[in-house]
Amino acid sequence: MTASPLKPAGRAATPMAFVRAIVLGYERYGKDPSxxxxxxxxxxxxxxxxxxxxxxxxxxxxxxxxxxxxxxxALGWFGxxxxxxxxxxxxxxxxxxxxxxxxIKRWCRHHRLLTDDIDMALTVGNGQxxxxxxxxxxxxxxxxxxxxxxxRFLHGYASWVIDSRVSLRTARFPFEAPPHRDAYPLMxxxxxxxxxxxxxxxxxxxxxxxxxxRDEQAxxxxxxxxxxxxxxxYRRDRLLGQRVRELLRAQGRQGATAESLSGLLHVSxxxxxxxxxxxxxxxxxxxxxxxxxxxxxxxxxxxRPIKNIALAVGFRNEKSFSRAFRAWAGMTPGDFxxxxxxxxxxxxxxxxxx
Length: 354
Prior knowledge:
This protein is of the alpha+beta class. It folds into 3 domains: about 10-235, no CATH class; about 240-280, no CATH class; about 285-354, Homeodomain-like (Arc Repressor Mutant, subunit A), CATH 1.10.10.60. It has 15 helices and 7 strands. The longest helix has 20 residues, at about 145-160. The relative contact order is 0.10.
């Protein structure tokens, strides 16, 4: 297994710096990288180009050849080899976990059995989960490639095993922004921070509770390729709709536009609309759901005039509010308030009935 491609084959997006890191791995083993470069159709003269790029297909071919030729899936990062098939073993060891949180913990624990050079850990707090890497030795010239690849491996596996994009809030790196910084948003979504204390990324802790959706047969199919784990193929985010609803509740009408929401979620407005569509819901439907919830809550818990509630939740007048509320709850706002007061409303309608 190797580092994930940045984009589908055809677009040169992977930094030449990562190609040079693989070549450096060959040098550490005293071997000639010429055959691997030829396999990937990368001209040796292009290695020196500071802003050079290769396609995902080229990088996959290079990595697969190098890992097998060197018999080291770590490509020289660590003090000892990780023989061909090592990362497949890590995937298999976590596959029987009941949820993503346990799977990630197993990955980190088993990775420590493979090398002492780095430690990977999962921590949870303040509503977010963080995967971090502690460096126990000087990784030297391969430091960036090693840290980026190990973060990508686990992020890719996490997305694959729950069949959902794991959207990152923040990705941090313990080095200054490299000349190829523009490639990082293609590898890591969310806010990017350089010059951090350790390499890490953080995401919503609720992903950890999602069950695994892959089995042994799916794993065998995935491992037939040297480069199976690409986060970008997982457009669906199983938590996105829930996160949008929470932002709409918290931000109110001021945060109800696609542009403002996409900024808070660190995605483009176009991506936001597309991912919600893939979940079978639209932004407008989520807005309506939140407005209805907020209206019902005010009808139940306050004595505010219905006209004022209508304006507060974004309707132009009481008539349009009453029409929308009847379509949602099956009764007028006044009837809903009276039923709630009598204790017979049974609470808010369930979201599945909206």
